[in-house]
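Help! Submission page says 'invalid entity' but I think these are all valid:
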Amino acid sequence: MKGGGERSGAVFPVLAAALLGALALSAATGPVSISPRAAFDAIFRGTDDTPARVLLSLRLPRALLGALVGGALASSGVAFQALLRNPLADPYILGVSGGAAVGALTVALFLSADASPLLPLCAFGGAALSALAVFLLARRRAGISPERLILMGVVVGAFLNAVIMLMVTLAPPGKIPGALYWLMGDLGQGTPHRVAVLFPYVALGTVFLYLLSRGLDMLLLGDHAAFQAGLSVERVKTATYLTASLLAGSVVAVSGLIGFVGLIVPHGARVLVGSGHRRLLPAAFLLGGAFLVLSDTLARAASPAGELPVGAVTALAGAPFFLYLLRRNGGRS
Amino acid sequence: MSGRGRIDAVRRFLPGFLPVVALLASVIDRPAFAADRFPLALKDDRGVTVRLAAPPHRIVSLAPSLTEIVFLLGREGSLVGVTRFCNVPPAASRLPKIGGVSDPDVERIVALSPDLVLCTTDGNPRDKVRAVEEMGIPCFAVAPQDLEAVFTAIERLGVLLGALDRGRAEAGSLRRRARLARPSSLDADRPSVLFIVSTAPIIAAGEGTFMDELVRLSGGRNAAARFSGRYPRLSVEEMVAARPDVIFVAGMAGVERFPPEVTRWKEIPAFRDGAVITLDGDLVTRPGPRLVTALERVSAALAEWRAGAASRPKAPGAGAGGKR
């Protein structure tokens, strides 16, 4: 809404350029040296030497996965913050992460190690189930109140955390290290296949949220005012909640728990384009994508010990970035 | 080495060696190693002096490697408690359990009224060991960091358990086997070797691990040594860049096989040539007598690699950008 209009114009091209730049930087960073010429040949002439294969089946899928995951987390963060009218809401506060983690650990514990292709599916199932449980618990005849949603989310999340702790403690040695790494956030699973699997979820989810953006704007006024303005409040809330949960759940299923992006990037985007959702949602998607791709590049390049968990880097790099955005804009928004 | 050569070598080194030998003899032979009579006082790897009035006859072991050493010394009759991971030799798994390596149950240990607890500083929590000591039970800590230290630990435990001669003999024969297992010349082909402890995610054994030493002693180069940290986590691309000739998989984490999207990287010579060898995780991570068996296996595998090196193509698929 306000603040969006005057700072228009250059923001979206700049954000898109930032995302493309981050993708290029990510594709150029790694232990195997790839010359620009080799990269060009790999992409446009279909060469099949080692640099080409490293670029096409390792780095680009990973970079694209980072963009999808970052963008989706930021978008669902925007939606949850509007839905709950709470600046601290993010995909994880509503038990989505706990459900996904329990789903993933269940695969690791009860199926053989070869069942890892099932991991995203079961994590998604767990996330969807816990989101649905929170929703049903929070719903009353009078409708869904943000307070009850948060409360139920926290309660279900705490319960699922206890289940996670039990599973980790009781697991026979050596059963779940893969799942534990996944819980720390891992873009290393970025195969072309995974990108292809995730893409439709992210595309549908973000487009659907975008279509809801007018409703989200009105929700910010409060339920009563929104209703007065002719919005079918409950339907918008339900649609937003389910879409954002499924979006976050599908992302978590593939990449594990990457915190901070869904919480902080929406605020950064709001500083840039204001709080109107028609502009906020695309801006958050681009910013989140660029941010996560850059963080992952940093995680791979900066560590002398092999790979760092990207979740640690997003938090380390994200907080100063966020403070910079806030200070530059004098805390407006 | 022939008799002549040995004499020559002795003659060459004698002047410098003599004081060292004399010093070693005074240190080793008198206070610690010659004390085959009890009471004895022996300093452990924490620097704590453990005093025993008589050979212990109720021993609790807090690590699988220590259990193996007690059996090796022929003192298994005195073992009254072990961890749930102590499975070698099979008789060990029938002994009463006191919990795990990182979570030993102090109360169960005390209930067994041991007169000696064997522990390690790599894995046993310090406060648990302290709690046992506070109950008046002597704890002897062993923390070997390399192969030679394992042999020394066997000798010292021999002294401590009243099996001095057996300890010396076993350590001596292990030393001989280790010497025989090593290639005669280390400057021949030195394959680049990755020792993997988990395949999903890929975690390699870096510098400072026993696996690193096994690779070096066998005449290989540890491809993970350039990463800092003992167990660096690698991406597939880092494996492609490292181009390991041989990969050992020690299924420590329970994931022994690489996922298919990793093995299809024929740029990695080990995958191209089928030089991926699975080893028992217990064998290479326990600082006990079977580490020598691990050395023999690793060394044999690298010898086989050298034998086949001539017939192998010189890195096809490395492509224009592949730098050796």
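Support: the input was valid. A stray whitespace character was the problem, and the output above is from the cleaned input. The mean pLDDT of chain B is 85.
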